Amino acid sequence: MEDPVEARADDSEDLYDVAAWEPRTALDRLAVTVHRGGRRLARWAVYVLGFVIFLAILAGGAGAVILRNPFVLGLVVLSVVPAGLLALYVYRTDVTTKEPPTLLAATFVLAILFAGFAAVVNGRLGDLQALGPIGVILFFYLVVGPGEELVKMLAVRLYAYRDDRFDSVVDGAVYGAVAGLGFATIENVLYITQNLQGSGALITAATVDIVAQFSETVDEGSQITAVRSLAGPGHVIYSAFAGYYLGLAKFNRENAVPIIIKGIIIAAFIHATYNTLAGIVPGLVGLVVPGVPALVVFFGFVVVYAGLFFAILYRKLQRYRRAYERAHDDADPGEMDPELTEFDADA
User: Fold this and answer.
1) For 168, which of 96, 147, 226, 252 could close a Cys bridge (C-beta 3.0–4.6 Å)?
2) Is residue 44 within a helix (H) or strand (E), and if so which, with residue range?
3) Mean pLDDT of the residues in the chain
4) Which residues contact 9 (CB under 8 A, 6 or more apart)?
5) Is residue 10 part of a domain?
6) Residue 213 and residue 69: Cα distance in Å, rounded?
7) CA dihedral in degrees (170, 80, 82, 172; nearest 10)?
8) Tell me: the pLDDT tens digits for 214-245?
9) Which residue, 144, 267, 149, is CA-closest to 157?
């Protein structure tokens, strides 16, 4: 879109500071520098605030639990294995250049740090649940779903998204999946440590009997670890959806904001619906089929629900793959250079 003066002007006419602008003077350059510096400062402020909240969360109990009983870390690792395998699958479906480990690691760490933002918001607005079942549902759809998905996308948007190596739409799904893995990891740390604190299993931390400490930790933490291992893949799926649309936005700048909003709405809706149904379906199944262990019912529900949306995500990723392969097949020799792996690029 152009100003009428610029649209009708001769190319030789200088319209600087009339209907066009570019940095020419020292003041212009100062304005550009202030703008860039302000954006950089704001970005680092988010990093620092996320790190401070993360430290506060650890100091609130999780860090002490892990220091007193390092076997808890083993339970955390076990709890994120399914989510990790799912994120690995999304990574391997990337038919373009494979993403560099540095960007993947940064996204994972930022998702862990920024998870504290969601924890603060969830805590502040948790009183909605006091309104009864309607309040709980509103809490899931208006607070938990949108808040957690926004936080995970922030972990992608502030770093990997800005890098030139984020060079295809499907990269968004990869980084989104990694952000979901990071979020699931810190969430599992909190759930498992809080559960162990509440059960009193940490009384063995001071004993010299390492075998007994390990055995008691596993006994007390096995159920919550199993539950969290089922919940983790959901975070990967939700944020892979949102990440895909973040990637689509990067290459469609004119509609970037609506595209990102669409991705967040999709991810938040799937997330909130899972949270809502997870508290309803097992109880209903228990009434219809009494005697079935609650963990078995929950496992079945998660497999069906996550499997459904994973199938949709799979179709979306495969559709991109087919379009990418057609683009290469239709290109004239030399028109499209073959994609290099990161190892080829470094060679």
Assistant:
1) 96
2) helix 26-57
3) 85
4) 15, 19
5) no
6) 8
7) 0
8) 455 445 556 778 778 888 899 999 999 999 99
9) 149
pLDDT of residue 345: 41
Domain carrying residue 183:
29-324
Tokens of 276: 């809502």
Helices 101-124/169-199 angle, 10° precision: 50
Q: Which band of pLDDT confidence, cut at 50, 70 and 90, is reported for residue 209?
A: low
Q: What is the largest CA-CA distance in the chain?
A: 87
Structure tokens at 102: 């540095």
- Could you give the C-alpha distances from 136 to 70, 129, 190, 313, in angstroms and in order? 35, 4, 21, 28
| Residue 213's pLDDT band (cuts 50, 70, 90) | very low
| 62 occurs within a structural domain | yes
* Alpha carbons within 13 A on the beta-carbon side of 260: 18
CA distance 22 to 282: 62
Q: Which of 262, 345, 340 is nearest to 97 (CA)?
A: 340
Taking each helix axis from N to C terminus, what angle separates 281-288 and 294-330, rounded to the nearest 10 degrees?
Answer: 130
How far apart, in Å, do the first and last CA atoms of the chain sit? 44
Asked if pLDDT for residue 136 goes beyond 90, the answer is yes
126, part of any domain: yes
* Per-residue pLDDT at 146: 96
Query: How far is residue 295's CA from residue 209's CA, in Å, rounded to a whole number?
Result: 31
Token pair 């390492």 is at which residue?
210
H runs (alpha helix) in 125-209 = 133-139, 145-157, 169-199
Q: What is the pTM for the complete model shown?
A: 0.84
Q: How many folded domains does the chain comprise? A: 1
Question: Looking up tokens 């999709």, which residue turns up?
Answer: 266
Q: Treating both helix axes as pointing N-terminal to C-terminal, what angle do 294-330 and 256-278 enclose, rounded to 10 degrees?
A: 160
Tokens at 154, concatenated: 């922030």
